[in-house]
Amino acid sequence: MTAASSTEYSTDGSPADRPAGASAERVLAGLDPEQREAAEAVRGPVCILAGAGTGKTRAITHRIAYAVAVGAVPADAVLAVTFTARAAGELRTRLRGLGAGGVQARTFHAAALRQLTYFAPQILGGPMPEVASNPIRWVSQAANRLRLRTDKAELRDLAGEIDWAKSSLISAQDYPSAAAKANRGISVTPERVAEVYAGYEEAKRRNNEIDFSDLLLIMAGALEEIGEVARSIRTQYRYFVIDEYQDVSPIQQRLLDAWLGGRDDVCVVGDPNQTIYSFAGAKPSYLLDFAERYPKATVVRLERDYRSTPQIVDLANRLISGATESRSAHLRLIGQRPDGPQPSFAEHDDEVAEAQSVAAAAKRLIAGGTPASEIAVLFRINAQSEAYEQALSEAGIPYVLRGGEKFFERAEVRQALVLLRGAARADDGSVSLPESVAEVLSSVGWNAEHPPPGGAARERWESLAALVNLAEQFRVELPAARLDDFNADLEQRAASQHAPTVQGVTLASLHSAKGLEWDAVFLVGLTDQTLPIQHANTPEQLAEERRLFYVGITRARQRLMLSWALARHQGQARRRRPSRFLDGLRPGTAERSSRSSGSGKRAKTAVPAEDAATFGRLRAWRKKQADAQSVPAYVVFSDATLVAIADRAPANEAELAQVPGVGPTKLQRYADVVLAVLAGQDPEPVELD
User: Fold this and answer.
1) CA atoms of 29 and 564, how far apart (whole Å)
2) CA angle 429–431–432, rounded 5-degree value
3) Residue of 163, 216, 546, 676 with fewest CB within 10 Å of its CB?
């Protein structure tokens, strides 16, 4: 593709939308050559591969408006489907401005709900059932019937697994085998999840309720089996446009196929480089294989990036070029904006220093004229927000937390603060502050040795871990501190972070940042075990973590700052390593194939070369030990702990006890065999009582 021609395009690729009633040719005016090619492909199967910042919404709205203007299809015969109500609203607004106000733009679920509500008597033989407003209550009821003790986080994880299974068209009976194949994992066994899943479905039936997945399943089934319903809907809708097609799940694809009924007037739009929801059931293969499914499809590639400077675009391209996928569908962006500053890379001694540096840089940007609302701090997990909430508060910078609650407003944190205040009354100072805090939090799910599997349970654990880390940091600053001193500090922190919400710097996880953009973006906490996340073990999971990093980079328009900390706390040994995804990106580093390939060979990616053999022996021993105990490997030791053991190479039990993650119980169980492995031996697994 050549660079942009002499035609001038705005930041999304063209001038403002034309007013209603514009002629067909005026609808095309101002589009770049590839956008125009997409807009003029008005019939048959069309696949638009649209990179970040390439004006995909403009391309699809102008395509629809052009098709209506030239008489290829009536406006009311078009169904445009996207993934959020906000995006659907934006499509409707733009289409009205282009003279195509009669087009229906909805989410999959909203479209299915509208159709099922109308056809309920024919499909269900009666009135429309209630759509469950809180399906977790039926998950809870099913778990209680099985006498399964679960907290709120575990219930959310159970609900997430059921939603994943239904989105993937997996029944309760088939869940255990499917979960094993997909490397799913929460604190409840797959067999018990299947039982809860079956109980959940029964609870809904008893109470005449359906969930959002049921909407899609019921409508797909009706279109497949009830001729009158199929004829009516297919007569109404003859022209389909599906946005964010890389995020379509099997259940959504089944409904789309049912809507089409063998026809091929469908346009799909997506970016394989931005597939970050596979864990929730998304199947990027539908986008990647579209041209194979429709051999006569028109395929258009939008690669002109109107959002980011060429320097940021170059970094994004270099990152994604390290992915193992070699499919031709992957896009290489071409920057269209004027040059800007090079992305910066900063290494810090600890997380506090990193957060304070980010706050200071944000303050300079604001003083230089960048609005606070045009600055974002993006991180991998929500628990990372606390340090930045605190640093921004101390710097007097307003902030907004997107996609989650402020740290001290989270339910598990509020509960922990109540317990810590109660425990302070009995604190006689005989136990160190971090040990006291860890002991109190153990009653609400804190376990120092390993995080639990599952998204919600792990997020809850991360919040509690952040409190333990704050206690350790507080002890460094005040060695004689007790629980009441620590509680007072927490109350002060909470007060500073509970300021009224105003326009300010955005704090957001990488997932919640998708679809957004800012003038200046800080990507923080870029260490191995965080990005990629510790529990990303398979090649597919590691590839998705890389794409998540790519999404973060492409949120920035003008300035991009990347940083990491070598230790969690002030004064700790600097043993963390920058994310493997930074290899070859930051100055002075070369891309290492074992780190960049997403191969899952953690022995070559998490430790230096001189320690790789030791780490490999430790992992081999851990696997034998875990198999002997019939437990997951992380129950023996996490990868992070094995990295620390390989790095420190303790020579005796006392030195091994100083390694993070080696608590008293594990020291008693495994000290002898771990030391034997370090000495080059191959000991047999320990037999536990």
Assistant:
1) 45
2) 95
3) 676
Whether the bond into 532 is cis, omega within 30 of 0: yes
DSSP state at residue 688 = P
Mean predicted lDDT score pLDDT of the chain: 82
Tokens of 388: 């930045």
CA distance 309 to 317: 12
The phi, psi pair for 579, rounded to 5°, reads: -50, 135
Q: Apex CA 215: angle with CA 210 and CA 217, to 5°?
A: 105
Decide the pairing of beta strands 266-270 and 239-242: parallel
Distance of alpha carbon 553 from alpha carbon 510, whole angstroms = 10
Nearest to 151 by CA among 162, 167, 135, 139: 139
pTM: 0.70
Burial string for 194-218 (b: 16+ CB within 10 Å, else e) reads bbbbbbbbebbeeeebbbbbbbbbb
**Which candidate, 249, 307, 349, places its Cα nearest to that of 563?**
349
Q: What is the mean pLDDT of residues 442-468?
A: 68
Contact by Cβ (8 Å): 573, 563: no
Positive or negative, the Cα torsion across 399, 405, 410, 414?
A: positive
CA dist 144 and 148 (Å) reads 6
399/498 Cα distance (integer angstroms) = 11
Report pLDDT digits (tens) over 226-259: 999 999 999 999 999 999 999 999 999 999 999 9
Strand partners, 36: none
CB 53 within 8 Å of CB 305? yes
391-432 pLDDT, tens digit per residue, is 998 888 888 888 666 667 777 777 788 888 777 777 777 777
